[in-house]
Design goal:
This protein has 271 residues and is mainly alpha-helical. It has ten helices and two strands, in the order αααββααααααα. α3 packs antiparallel against α4, α3 runs antiparallel to α7 and α8 runs antiparallel to α10. 31% of the residues are buried.
């Protein structure tokens, strides 16, 4: 037991909480874009199987770090090793979904399921990753491992989105958003079911549990959307959530299309 406590202490190594756009944050942000550009140029003319392997190993890395996070949040060691699961960290938040979708995409070959998973990684996922990477909010804490985990988790979402579109593994356009909608809808339904189970089982009496931050039984938390929840009745605010995220997913495709057009024009001018 003492050995386990020692391991927990190592996993709970402390640091000064990083600040938004401080050195720590900027290095991770710059590193994410640098990695996306380097891998995109490196794999642009490689066989498609190379991209699938990248998706797989990135997802495995994120899952391993998620397991670490669950251990770190669930165990305390100051008065002996004590287990107390923190239900607010249950891995069914929006930003937890890419590791499962990425694993699915990495383990399946070309087909409707694989295509839908990759489309999700280039639309809804890349928006959520970009939102956190550019506006970290309260994701940073005083634990080294957790700060690494959150940057790898959200950075990988941005990385994979850019990488899959830049290598043309996923085609840019509105059809890609349509292919991603069923994946988003499936996770949304799971989150709604989980939120209702938490409510009816009495879990909310002692724990915070708000998957996708859409529970009508918990205080608003998600930036911007929380303002909608405060003024718009449920389920209308849920409709706003769905339309808002879908519109944001489409904007990611428009931005990618704009960047590709700009680079194409510059390439022609150079020639």
């Amino acid at each position: 037991m003492e050995f386990f406590a020692s391991v927990l202490r190592v996993l709970d190594w402390q640091m000064e909480t990083p600040q938004s756009y401080g050195l720590y944050h900027i290095l991770w942000l710059a590193g994410t874009f640098a990695a996306a550009v380097i891998f995109s140029l490196w794999h642009r003319k490689h066989p498609a199987d190379r991209q699938r392997k990248v998706i797989l190993w990135v997802s495995v890395a994120v899952i391993l770090l998620e397991i670490y996070k669950q251990i770190n949040y669930s165990f305390s060691y100051e008065n002996g090793v004590v287990f107390d699961y923190q239900w607010y960290s249950f891995p069914l938040q929006f930003c937890s979904t890419p590791m499962f979708v990425g694993l699915l995409a990495g383990l399946t070959k070309k087909g409707k399921l694989h295509t839908a998973a990759c489309a999700y990684l280039c639309t809804y996922t890349v928006f959520a990753g970009a939102a956190v990477m550019f506006y970290p909010g309260d994701v940073f804490i005083g634990t080294v491992g957790i700060n690494i985990q959150t940057m790898v988790c959200h950075g990988s979402m941005l990385f994979l989105g850019i990488y899959l579109m830049a290598t043309e593994y996923v085609q840019i356009g509105f059809k890609t958003v349509l292919k991603a909608v069923p994946v988003f809808a499936a996770f949304l339904v799971l989150a709604m079911i989980a939120n209702e189970i938490a409510y009816f089982t009495g879990l909310l009496e002692t724990e915070s549990f708000n998957m996708f931050y859409i529970s009508p039984h918990q205080p608003p938390h998600l930036p911007v959307y929380s303002l909608v929840q405060e003024h718009v009745a449920y389920p209308w605010c849920l409709i706003v959530y769905i339309l808002g995220f879908t519109a944001a997913a489409y904007v990611m495709q428009l931005l990618a299309l704009g960047v590709r057009t700009l680079l194409s024009k510059k390439a022609k001018q150079t020639v």
